[in-house]
């Protein structure tokens, strides 16, 4: 009980920070969703977009700059992600894509609440747990590359997508645990980007599981 009280107190103390985190998250998701729906170019080259996304992440993570500059870069990142995801419209039905959006937001909401409850219960998901998730993600990426370069087996694709859903659902719990404990010194962009990537990867995995 004392731990739960401490978490509630900490959330109250960080209320302005959390409002900024979720406000920015909604804004960036809105940009991605709008661009994804409005883009109708099946010939979009993915590699330049991917390189741009990596560069933006590195700039936000390692280059000192005001939060409003990070917000602008994040917006550009969200725009490029929307362009990348627009390819799904060529392969999947609107109903399947809408179902994936609803599924990703539902999983996010449930796991966000789970992360709050676990943190309130005194559970700390530290560096070792984060390292485990990182290596699990790396293995998933490797298997996906092997699958893309090798034989296109539908069942294997669905299995890897299902594993992706589980992995990124756990990432939401982990990121919530970290956000409620860590002092970001007002850097809400980094926190909201963690959630943004969780949601978009959940979405991509759910789309793939319906293939």
Q: What this model shows, in words?
A:
There is one protein chain. The protein has 211 residues and is mostly helical. It has one domain. 82% of the residues lie in helices and 0% in strands. The protein has eight helices and no strands. Helix 2 packs parallel to helix 4, helix 6 runs antiparallel to helix 7 and helix 7 packs antiparallel against helix 8.
Quick synopsis:
The chain has 211 residues and is mainly α. The chain has helices at 2-13, 15-38, 46-62, 67-85, 94-120, 127-149, 154-181, 188-209. The longest helix is centred in the last third of the chain and has 28 residues, at 154-181.
Principal-axes geometry comes out as globular
Helices, by number, come to: 8
Name the helicity range.
Answer: over 70%
Total domain count? 1
SS content category: mainly alpha
User: Could you tell me the strand content as a percent range?
Assistant: under 5%
Mean model confidence by pLDDT: 87
Number of strands: 0
Kindly provide the radius of gyration, computed on alpha-carbon positions and rounded to a whole number of angstroms. 18 Å
Whole-Å distance between the termini?
Answer: 45 Å
Which spans of ≥5 residues are poorly predicted at pLDDT below 50?
none
The largest sheet is: none
List SSEs in N-to-C order.
Answer: HHHHHHHH
């Amino acid at each position: 009980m004392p731990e739960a009280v401490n978490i509630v107190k900490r959330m109250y103390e960080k209320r302005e920070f959390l409002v900024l985190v979720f406000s920015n998250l909604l804004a960036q998701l809105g940009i991605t969703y709008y661009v994804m729906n409005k883009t109708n170019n099946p010939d979009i080259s993915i590699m330049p977009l991917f390189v741009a996304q990596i560069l933006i992440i590195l700039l936000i993570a390692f280059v000192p700059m005001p939060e409003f500059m990070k917000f602008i870069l994040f917006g550009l990142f969200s725009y490029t992600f929307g362009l990348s995801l627009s390819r799904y419209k060529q392969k999947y039905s609107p109903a399947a894509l809408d179902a994936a959006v609803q599924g990703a937001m539902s999983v996010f909401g449930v796991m966000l609440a789970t992360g709050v409850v676990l943190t309130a219960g005194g559970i700390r998901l530290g560096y070792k747990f984060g390292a485990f998730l990182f290596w699990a993600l790396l293995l998933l990426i490797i298997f996906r590359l092997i699958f893309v370069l090798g034989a296109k087996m539908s069942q294997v694709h669905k299995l890897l997508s299902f594993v992706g859903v589980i992995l990124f659902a756990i990432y939401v719990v982990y990121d919530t645990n970290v956000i409620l404990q860590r002092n970001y010194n007002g850097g809400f962009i980094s926190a909201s980007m963690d959630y943004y990537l969780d949601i978009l990867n959940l979405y991509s995995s759910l789309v793939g599981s319906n293939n």
